[in-house]
Write a structure and sequence with these properties.
By secondary structure, the protein is an alpha/beta fold. It has helices at residues 14-25, 67-70, 82-94, 124-128, 141-157, 175-188, 192-197, 234-247, 281-288, 298-301, 324-327, 360-378; strands spanning 4-9, 30-37, 45-49, 54-61, 75-78, 98-101, 135-137, 159-168, 253-260, 267-275, 294-296, 333-340, 349-356. It is 32% helix and 22% strand. The radius of gyration is 21 Å and the shape is globular.
Length: 379
């Protein structure tokens, strides 16, 4: 694979930091690397070290760029939010740079491919074809966690509908969300007895990022409420629209409830999936053991496989069930609690629980995998 001239927009943010970490871990083939952020981070020096490139990189002010100053790049990964992407992604694209965008800015645009590397990599061609927009959208991190699982099962059993409840970490709201949970938890940590008896028994740090205290609490919605009287949030709408687009299932029935939980990193999903054809938990397990980007947890598989050679799984007690702490810092989507939907009179429904590191797997890693796909087309 040829070396690429790469730009990272939002390089000093949560996702940008993880992108840089993964690039170094993978010894990504880089010819030149440029880092961009807001004026607040301008001139900050970040040391980058891999076998492909080692140098101190100066963070550049994005707001001073134009098509001429960025035309020497091949690919730019944006992780700076929708407002920045809407303004600057077209500037980079018009300069001939292929943009991979982590925000919500372009996901619903029918002219822009929405791609999960393990699921629909060929859709990248839409962006690169004659008349293409040179922009590729990265899905929402909660949608991402389901896609490798549901896409594989859809190939075999034809997916009809999904009901999803998500339990989303505060890092999905950025560094401010992380800071709010940390500060609230610290202030409440020694007041557990009072909290048990009365939730307002002690002073609470006023919420800023979230609508109510998040420490030791669960908020029954994540995201922003839509102005269409549906009662849905934009996070819930994304689950439906993005699943349909990625899976190429325009009529897929999707009902979602997105919940914010006091977890720093790692989104969890409880999924009920209904298919046209019958399937059993063992069927699901046998298929998913061969699915790229998915890791089965061992408590789940031991019920169905008795021979050690049938169980290509971790044996640590920590991996008995999929949890956010298991997923943090790792690449796969972890799946467990696979069981038949007993509310039905057939074998067409399956329930499962999945988790992933929303910053790594849900954003940074997929963007890098998409960059690799783009590089093959550029070679």
């Amino acid at each position: 694979m040829k070396k690429v001239r790469l730009g990272i927009i939002g390089a000093t943010g949560l996702v940008g930091t993880i992108i840089l970490r993964i690039l170094q871990e993978q010894n990504f083939p880089i010819q030149d690397l440029r880092l961009f952020a807001s004026a607040n981070s301008t001139d900050r020096i970040i040391h980058y070290a891999s076998s492909q490139l080692e140098k101190d990189l100066r963070v550049e002010d994005l707001n001073t760029q134009n098509a001429d100053t960025v035309k020497n790049l091949d690919i730019a990964i944006f992780s700076a939010g929708a407002t920045v992407s809407k303004k600057w992604a077209p500037v980079f694209a018009q300069a001939g740079v292929v943009v991979i965008d982590n925000s919500s800015a372009w996901r619903s645009d029918p002219r822009i491919p929405l791609v999960v590397s393990e699921v629909n990599p060929k859709d990248v061609r839409w962006a690169l074809a004659t008349g293409g927009k040179h922009i590729i959208a990265n899905p929402n991190c909660t949608t991402m966690a389901m896609m490798p699982i549901l896409a594989t099962l859809n190939q075999h059993y034809k997916l009809n509908s999904i009901i999803v409840s998500t339990y989303q970490a505060v890092s999905g709201a950025g560094q401010k969300g992380v800071n709010e949970l940390a500060s609230q938890a610290e202030s409440m940590l020694n007041d557990g007895v009072n909290l048990l008896l009365k939730g307002t028994a002690f002073p609470m740090i006023k919420p800023d990022v979230f609508a109510a205290p998040i420490a030791f609490n669960v908020l029954p919605y994540a995201g922003n409420f839509l102005e269409d009287n549906s009662g849905e949030t934009d996070e819930e709408r994304k689950l439906r629209d993005e699943s349909r687009k990625i899976l190429h299932l325009a009529k897929l029935k999707v009902a979602g409830t997105c919940v914010r939980v006091p977890v720093f990193t790692g989104h969890s999903l409880s999924v009920n999936a209904v298919f046209q054809n019958n399937l059993t938990p063992r069927d699901v397990i046998e298929i998913l053991t061969k699915t790229s980007g998915v890791s089965l947890t061992n408590r789940l598989t031991s019920r169905y496989f008795t021979r050690a050679q049938d169980m290509d799984i971790a044996t640590s007690p920590a991996s008995a069930f999929p949890t956010p702490l298991l997923a943090v810092g790792h690449d796969p989507v972890y799946i467990g609690r696979i069981r038949q939907d007993l509310s039905r009179n057939d074998q067409k429904g399956i329930n499962f629980f999945a988790v992933c590191d929303n910053l790594r797997k849900g954003a940074a890693l997929n963007a890098i995998e998409l960059a690799k796909i783009v590089m093959k087309y550029l070679s």
